[in-house]
Amino acid sequence: MKWNKLSVRCTVETQEAVSNILIENGAEGLQIEDEPTQEMVSLDTYFAEDFDLIPLVARIKEQIANLAEFGLDPGDFQVGTEQLDDSSWADEWKKYYHTTRISRYLAIAPSWEDEGSFDAQTTLIKLDPGKSFGTGTHPTTILALHGLESVLSGKHESMIDVGTGSGVLSIAARLLGAGHIEAYDVEDESLKAASENFALNYCFADINLKKNDLLNDVNGQYDLITANILAEIIVPLIPQAFEHLKTDGKLILSGIIADKLPLIQETLHQHGFEVLETMNIKDWYGIVAVKLQNS
C-alpha cells in the first residue's frame, strides 16, 4: 500500500500554529525536524493513498498565509506532498522516532530500538506509529500521560479511553495499575494500530478495544475517562463523561489549543465538573477535572 506524505516548511515562530492547522485538518501524527539555521522547521504527516490532498493542500496554504493576521510571520513557507510505499514510510519514521523519557515515571520506545537505560521506577511503553499516528511524544499526548500519572494510584481504577488512536493512553494506564479499561475509536486504522501496540506491551487481554463514537451506547460508570482529541469534539463529550463517571471520578482531557481553553473550562463548569489541574506545553493545554456529584 502507498501513503501520501504531506510536508510543511515554516518558521519556528509559527510551528505551534501550523501544527494545530495540520491536526485540525486530519493529521493525527507529526514528525518535526529543526533545520540547521534554527529559523525554519519541517513538519511531516501521512495520509492514505486514496485521500484527496489537492483541496487539503490549498486549504492549508490559505490558513498558514492567514497567520499574518494574528501577528505571526510564516515566512517563505512551503507545502508539498510525496507518495511513499510501506517500506519507505517505515524508514521515514525510524529517522525521527527514538526512545524518549516522557515524565518521571514514563518512557516510550519503538520496537526496533534498544530500550535505553532507565531506573527501576520507570514504566516503559513500547509503541510503533501507525500510518496516521504519532510516536507518543506530541505535546497533547505528553499532557494526557502526565494527567494519568497524577491520577492513577494503582488501585485498579476502571477507565474509558475515548479516541484511543495508537492506544498509548490505555497502555500507560494499564502499566500504571489501572484495572478494567475500555478503549474506543471510530477509525478502523486506529483500532488496528492500537491492537498491535497492545500486543507489543503484553496487555491485549487486559483492554477491551472496540469501535465506538465517543460514549454513545455506553453503560455503567467508571473511575476515569481520558480523551486526547480536538476541542470541538471534547465539548459534546463532557456531558456524556459526567453521566458515565462515578462521583469523584476524574476526567483527563488533552488536545486543547490555547484559544479553545476557555470554552472547555466553561463547558466543564456548566456540567458539574471542577478543574483540578491545568497543564500546558506552549500553546497546548491539558485538564484534569473531577465530577462533583451525581445529577
TrEMBL record:
Organism superkingdom: Bacteria
Entry's EC annotation: 2.1.1.-
Listed SUPFAM superfamilies: S-adenosyl-L-methionine-dependent methyltransferases
One GO BP: methylation
Annotated GO MF terms: protein-lysine N-methyltransferase activity
Family matches, as InterPro entries: Ribosomal_L11_MeTrfase_PrmA, Ribosomal_PrmA_MeTrfase, SAM-dependent_MTases_sf
Places the protein is found: Cytoplasm
GO CC annotation: cytoplasm; ribosome
Transmembrane annotation, as ranges: none
UniProt entry keywords in alphabetical sequence: Cytoplasm, Methyltransferase, Ribonucleoprotein, Ribosomal protein, S-adenosyl-L-methionine, Transferase
Residues where S-adenosyl-L-methionine binds: 141, 163, 185, 228
Catalytic activity: L-lysyl-[protein] + 3 S-adenosyl-L-methionine = N(6),N(6),N(6)-trimethyl-L-lysyl-[protein] + 3 S-adenosyl-L-homocysteine + 3 H(+)
HAMAP family: Methyltr_PrmA
Family: Belongs to the methyltransferase superfamily. PrmA family.
PANTHER family hit by this protein: ELECTRON TRANSFER FLAVOPROTEIN BETA SUBUNIT LYSINE METHYLTRANSFERASE
Function, as annotated: Methylates ribosomal protein L11.
Protein's name in the database: Ribosomal protein L11 methyltransferase
Lineage, highest ranks first: Bacteria, Bacillati, Bacillota, Bacilli, Lactobacillales
Gene name of the record: prmA
